[in-house]
Design a protein that fits this description.
By secondary structure, the chain is an alpha+beta fold. The chain has eleven helices and twelve strands. The strands form three sheets. A five-stranded antiparallel β-sheet has the order 4-3-7-6-5, sandwiched between helices. α5 runs antiparallel to α6 and α8 runs parallel beside α9.
Length: about 350
């Protein structure tokens, strides 16, 4: 193999060609002179497509110009640069590429090439992100329990105090106090619902489908919306995915009740085989309503923060969010998450 004027030995060529990590060698001007099969498999660019171009072919636009300026300044000074880059494969897939880029010098100490060795760490980073989300959810469970327990004690004391106050009051004033106690009952009920609703323990105690039916029943009772739940799931999902699906349904039904002006809604969970291997699966959860519909950009402006948070959590598991709505024709929101079995 030849790189510029340098002939690489047959043994070293075999090492590069059979390496599990990606290898890219570029000239001093950044033009790619060599990529190994692992690079081709990771990026989707064939050797003929990559050689003669620059590493910009896999740029995703995530890194800032300042990032690349720092990288090239580091390399130009003769030092090694190590970072995880968010790159884009030929088919548009985003992947996390952990790379070590080193300058290659000749016998005079002049930089002639740059060599980049890397690996796709997308799944590892998603797993780490999923663990962080799980820890945050566990903390939310703890806080919700404390909120419900502490507030419940004060509400009970308020009830006792108000009951004492009603003794000897004229009927009109006693009815006013009774009305306040009804408001306190409502507050206590809402706290109980919130506490139950955000706890992943509901999923672990009842199972995912029963927990979702619990949400649907609650939505029907509170909002007079008919909610149906269907499922063709025939596998057990990882706990992180079950928790995310439960949260997705909970928030989705809340949005239907608050904004859609719907009379019917449905929740459909399904498993689909996407790839050529039976292990390649996607779990999808679709929430559809017959409400007034809206412009999707309006939704993103109104609920942008919560949507970005949901999309971030889905992305951490490799998932996607699809929102479709037509004014007057209802809305459908679908979360899709890849899972291997």
């Amino acid at each position: 193999m030849r790189l510029g004027e340098v002939v690489i030995s047959e043994t070293l060529t075999r090492v590069l060609e059979q390496a599990a990590d990606t290898v890219l060698v570029a000239g001093r001007d950044g033009t790619i002179e060599y990529v190994n099969p692992a690079y081709v498999a990771t990026t989707g660019y064939s050797r003929d497509e990559a050689v003669g171009r620059t590493p910009r072919i896999v740029r995703s636009g995530i890194q800032t110009p300042g990032f690349y300026e720092t990288m090239w300044n580091t390399l130009a000074s003769g030092r090694t640069f190590h970072a995880t880059l968010t790159n884009r494969a030929r088919d548009g897939r985003i992947f996390e590429h952990e790379q070590t880029i080193s300058p290659v010098v000749d016998h005079n100490g002049v930089i002639t090439h740059f060599a980049a060795i890397g690996r796709d760490v997308t799944q590892r980073q998603r797993g780490e992100a999923a663990r962080v989300h799980y820890q945050l959810e566990q903390e939310a469970v703890r806080i919700a329990g404390l909120l419900h327990d502490e507030a419940g004690q004060f509400l009970a004391l308020a009830h006792i105090t108000l009951a004492d106050m009603t003794r000897g009051l004229p009927p009109a004033e006693a009815n006013r106090v009774l009305e306040v106690r009804r408001y306190l009952d409502y507050v206590e009920e809402r706290l109980r619902e919130i506490s139950r609703g955000i706890q992943p323990r509901v999923v672990s105690d009842l199972g995912l489908m029963e927990a979702i039916r619990f949400l649907a029943d609650g939505c029907e009772r509170r909002n007079s919306i008919t909610v149906t739940v269907e499922s063709t799931l025939d596998i057990l999902c990882p706990a992180s995915i079950e928790s995310l699906l439960y949260t997705f349904v909970r928030d989705g039904l809340t949005n239907v009740a608050m904004h859609a002006q719907a009379t019917r809604a449905s929740v459909v969970l399904a498993r689909e085989v996407n790839g050529r291997r039976v292990q390649d699966n996607t779990i999808s959860c679709l929430i559809r309503d017959n409400g007034m519909g809206f412009d999707t950009e309006t939704l993103r402006v109104r609920d942008g923060g919560s949507l970005r948070a949901l999309e971030s959590r889905l992305a951490a598991l490799g998932g996607t969010l699809d929102i479709r709505s037509t004014p007057g024709a209802g809305t459908s929101v679908q979360a899709s998450i890849p899972v291997q079995i």
